[in-house]
């Protein structure tokens, strides 16, 4: 059996990569992918601790996070499409405020 520390190291690595992507990238698609990495790191933690403690609660929370991630992507893609249609770029630093 794999020790829980290895799962936690994997989750920390994924979370740090996602955080680095959020802080350094300016493209909206990279933002979404970085946030997805951070949410997957949280899922790994939930499932690892559910395995460690023998409880299914962490896996249930992971399913809710997956559903939240799907909704976040659907709304995020819509926002990115509006951003591209109005400004012609997906760079989040170009528009300072969204107007009709």
Give me some keywords for this one.
mainly alpha, Helix Hairpins, 3 helices, 0% strand, elongated, oxidoreductase activity, acting on NAD(P)H, transmembrane helix, membrane
What is the fold's blueprint, element by element?
Blueprint: H1 4-24, H2 28-53, H3 57-87
Short summary of the structure?
This protein has 100 residues and is an all-alpha fold.
Domains counted in the coordinates: how many?
1
The termini sit apart by: 56 Å
β-strand number: 0
CATH class category:
Mainly Alpha
Global shape = elongated
Model regions low in confidence, pLDDT < 50 over at least 5 residues: none
Radius of gyration: 17 Å
Task: List the total number of helices.
Answer: 3
Range of helix content: over 70%
User: How do the SSEs run, as a string of H and E?
Assistant: HHH
Pfam family, one: Oxidored_q2
GO molecular function, one term: oxidoreductase activity, acting on NAD(P)H
Subcellular location: Membrane
Transmembrane segments: 6-23, 30-54, 60-84
Description:
The protein has helices at 4-24, 28-53, 57-87. It has 100 residues and is an all-alpha fold. It has a single domain (7-87), classed as Helix Hairpins. It starts with a helix and ends in a 13-residue tail after the last helix. 10% of the residues are buried. The mean pLDDT is 91.
